[in-house]
Design brief:
There is one protein chain. With about 100 residues, the chain is mainly α. It has two helices and no strands.
C-alpha cells in the first residue's frame, strides 16, 4: 500500500466511517468556498455590466479578485486540512497496529 494511504482495514468500522465523514466534511467546506467565490465573481461582473455609476464599477472590480481569492483560500485550507487529517489517520493506524 502506498505511504500516502495508511492501512486502515484493521481499524473498527466506526473509526473508518469517522474518517470518511471527516474527509467528506472537508470536501463540503471546499465546495462552500468555491460557491461563495463564484457568487462574488458573478456579483462583481453583474455590478460592472448593469450599473454605470463609478461606485458600482469600483465595487464590482473589487468583488472579482475577492471571489478568486476566496476560491484560492478555500483550496489552500482544504489541502492543508486534508494533510492534517491524513496525519491523524496514520497516527491512529500506528497506534492500533501497536496493540
Amino acid at each position: 500500500m502506498p505511504e500516502s494511504e495508511p492501512d486502515v482495514r484493521h481499524l473498527s468500522l466506526s473509526d473508518q466511517l469517522a474518517i470518511d465523514r471527516t474527509h467528506l466534511a472537508n470536501e463540503r467546506t471546499l465546495l462552500a468556498y468555491v460557491r461563495s467565490g463564484i457568487a462574488l465573481v458573478v456579483a462583481g461582473f453583474s455590478l460592472i455590466n448593469f450599473f454605470r455609476d463609478d461606485i458600482y464599477i469600483v465595487v464590482g472590480a473589487l468583488l472579482i479578485p475577492t471571489g478568486l481569492l476566496t476560491i484560492g483560500l478555500g483550496w489552500w485550507r482544504c489541502q492543508r486540512r486534508s494533510r492534517h487529517i491524513e496525519e491523524h489517520v496514520r497516527q491512529a493506524a500506528r497506534r492500533s497496529t501497536a496493540r
